[in-house]
Amino acid sequence: MTDAEARDALIAPHRRTGRMSGRCLCGAVKIEIDGNYVAAIGACHCVMCQRWNGMLFGSFVADTKAVTVTGPVRSYASSSFSERGFCETCGSSVWLRSTDPEEPEIELFPGLFKEAADFVLLSEIYTDLAPNYACLAGEHRRKTRAEVQADHPFVEGDN
Q: Which pLDDT value is given to residue 156?
């Protein structure tokens, strides 16, 4: 089974179609989902995500075409293959997305959506880089830095 097939099998029970509305801390940025999304959270402990969030990064994915974001959003190209969006008023993190225009999914922050409080933790990556204060309990898929970087693009020297 390829990594893509394993991912699809893991998230299949959590696929949803519907509407969700979210907002940033100050309310200036609004996010609407009208379509497909995955009602489960993936967590990342890489150094870049820790620097961006002050701890770990958690997100869920939605079809890019199903997401509408309005308000004062700025983006930062954090690597050659991804960018991170945030509210320019309050600084709330909004998304992580590929710079590839053909990428069908965008990663959104669950804290922006009230309904996401019921989502399960599905996976955790860069587990060997997790600080002691951010260890996540429960049954979910875990991958180390070496396992992630064997199959996915990464930023050299991000340690």
A: 58
Global pTM reads 0.89
- H/E stretch holding 20: strand 15-23
Per-residue pLDDT reduced to its tens digit, 68-113: 999 999 999 988 889 999 999 999 999 999 999 899 999 999 999 9
What's CA 138's distance to the chain center, in Å? Answer: 19
Q: How far is CA 106 from CA 5, 7, 74, in A?
A: 19, 15, 15
Q: How far apart are the C-alpha atoms of 53 and 55, rounded to whole Å?
A: 5
Residue 138's Cβ-count burial label (10 Å; 0-12, 13-18, 19+) is exposed
Strands (E), 24-157: 30-38, 40-44, 57-63, 67-70, 73-77, 82-87, 93-98, 105-108, 120-125, 141-143
What amino acid is encoded at 150 in this protein? A
